[in-house]
Design a protein that fits this description.
Blueprint (H helix, E strand, L loop, with lengths): L9 E7 L5 H14 L4 E5 L5 H11 L8 H25 L3 E5 L2 H11 L4 H12 L6 E6 L2 H7 L11 H17 L4 E5 L4 H12 L9
Parallel strand pairs: 1-3, 1-4, 2-3, 4-5
Length: 213
């Protein structure tokens, strides 16, 4: 997907399988950047907007039951389109650092590799939903699905999928990162939290505006 950086902010996505620590490291990154004086917007997918919160319940609640894979992908795309237009683009236009817990790559991994939907179709859907907006950096927190699912606690509708589903998801995250290493940082998620955070900080720091804040 073609990147479009017609804004002054910095856009960072955290990706990875269940239990990888995305939320933890998103919050640590937010705190570090805030301490430096940056305006930071921490958000997530699905559910980063009021509309997204309703869509998140549909996507993750066991009461939803089985969704056709395409239906699921389209609901995620609807959440992402609202997220980008209502929250992410305005924040970037104001010069904020936006950190999102999941973005396009989750759809490519979960609905693509996991649900076996066509990768080209999902790329096109992502292009439409985001208008081509791509993170400056995507951090993939890599974890064996057995370990990650053990960390995850009560499993939602997606987490409850079979192990082979989550193994395909992991492999696809790593394949995406391997195909475009300039835009990705892959970090083993089972190491020391402080060490992982330091590694992420080291990749984010060069993206921050010189002399800012």
């Amino acid at each position: 997907m073609q990147a479009r950086y017609s804004h002054s902010g910095v856009f960072i996505a955290l990706e990875g399988g269940e239990g990888a620590g995305k939320s933890t490291h998103a919050k640590l990154l937010e705190q570090w950047l805030s301490d430096l004086g940056h305006d930071v917007v921490l958000t997530r997918e699905p559910g980063g907007t009021a509309v997204g919160a309703a869509l998140r319940a549909i996507l993750l609640d066991h009461e939803t039951g089985t969704l056709a894979p395409l239906t699921e992908a389209l609901v995620y795309a609807a959440d992402r389109a609202e997220h980008v237009e209502a929250l992410i683009r305005p924040a970037l236009a104001q010069g904020s650092v936006v950190i999102t817990d999941r973005y396009v790559d989750s759809t490519l991994a979960y609905q693509g590799a996991g649900r076996s939907l066509d990768a080209a179709d999902l790329q096109q859907l992502a292009q439409i939903a985001t208008g081509g907006l791509r993170p400056h950096l995507t951090v993939v927190l890599d974890i064996d699905p057995v370990d990650g699912l053990g960390r995850a606690g009560d499993h939602d509708r997606i987490e409850a999928e079979p192990l082979d589903f989550h193994e395909r998801v992991r492999e696809h995250f790593l394949a995406l990162a391997g195909a475009d290493p300039e835009h990705y940082l892959v970090v083993p998620a089972t190491g020391d939290v402080d060490a992982i955070h330091a590694t992420i900080r080291g990749a984010v720091a060069p993206l921050l505006p010189v002399g800012a804040p």
